């Protein structure tokens, strides 16, 4: 089983071997497609939320889960000092081929010792948390990478709309935001498991988190971080900024 089908697709595209897109299968019983060319888009073709996030980047930037490196490349061309980080060997190779100067191949929780002015997590970048119970662990780790006046810029989507007759967001707020954010009896609705396929190869199943803003705000507060809603998109998505209190 090929685990890094995403990274392989990126390298194929750069090497002129683009013939199909990535297909994803989720625990929501949905099949979707990730168009490979979209991952190499420039600033002008990015959603408004991503453009806004890039406009707000300042100082030394860590692009977490950089993928093909499109955000890093744009920021580098603007003159910012940016480091592109991804756990995928092939994604990091793709970033190097595109001319990104500073790259790191690492899982974010294993990355230590540096301080940044901006931590950037785009394309539902906070999804790397996987499970809601790990959110505060990640936020506390992010704090160790933040300089004195640093910011975290992240986007996500509230997928409550996909559950027509199941638990509503209001129900979730009433039962979960008073303390523990998960229970054995009722998993958070934004926890989704994915598998990717590409050119006959399949990835291992991996967890991904879609996070509503209220839950993010509660978790940030518990980690002594101020959470600010910067921009809302047209598809239940939003951009948030986290800073030290």
UniProtKB/TrEMBL annotation:
Pfam family, one: TehB
Keywords, sorted A to Z: Methyltransferase, Transferase
UniProt superkingdom: Bacteria
InterPro entries, per the entry: SAM-dependent_MTases_sf, TehB-like_dom
GO biological process: methylation
Domain Tellurite resistance methyltransferase TehB-like: residue ranges: 58-94
GO MF annotation list: methyltransferase activity
Name the record gives this protein: Methyltransferase domain-containing protein
Organism: Maribacter polysiphoniae
């Amino acid at each position: 089983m090929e685990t890094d089908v995403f990274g392989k697709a990126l390298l194929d595209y750069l090497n002129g071997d683009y013939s199909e897109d990535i297909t994803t299968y989720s625990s929501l019983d949905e099949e979707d497609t990730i168009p490979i060319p979209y991952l190499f888009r420039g600033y002008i073709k990015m959603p408004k939320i991503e453009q806004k996030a890039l406009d707000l980047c300042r100082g030394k930037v860590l692009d977490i889960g950089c993928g093909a490196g499109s955000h890093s490349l744009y920021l580098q061309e603007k003159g910012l000092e940016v480091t592109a980080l991804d756990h995928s060997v092939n994604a990091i190779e793709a970033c190097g081929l595109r001319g990104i100067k500073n790259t790191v191949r690492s899982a974010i929780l294993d990355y230590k010792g540096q301080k940044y002015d901006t931590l950037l997590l785009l394309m539902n970048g906070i999804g790397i948390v996987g499970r809601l119970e790990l959110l505060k662990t990640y936020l506390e780790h992010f704090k160790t990478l933040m300089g004195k006046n640093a910011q975290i810029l992240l986007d996500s989507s509230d997928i409550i709309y996909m559950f027509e007759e199941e638990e509503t967001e209001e129900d979730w707020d009433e039962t979960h935001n008073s303390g523990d954010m998960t229970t054995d009896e009722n998993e958070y609705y934004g926890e989704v498991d994915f598998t990717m396929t590409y050119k006959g190869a399949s990835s291992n199943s991996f967890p991904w988190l879609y996070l509503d803003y209220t839950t993010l705000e509660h978790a940030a507060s518990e980690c002594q971080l101020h959470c600010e809603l910067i921009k809302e998109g047209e598809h239940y998505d939003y951009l948030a900024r986290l800073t030290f209190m």
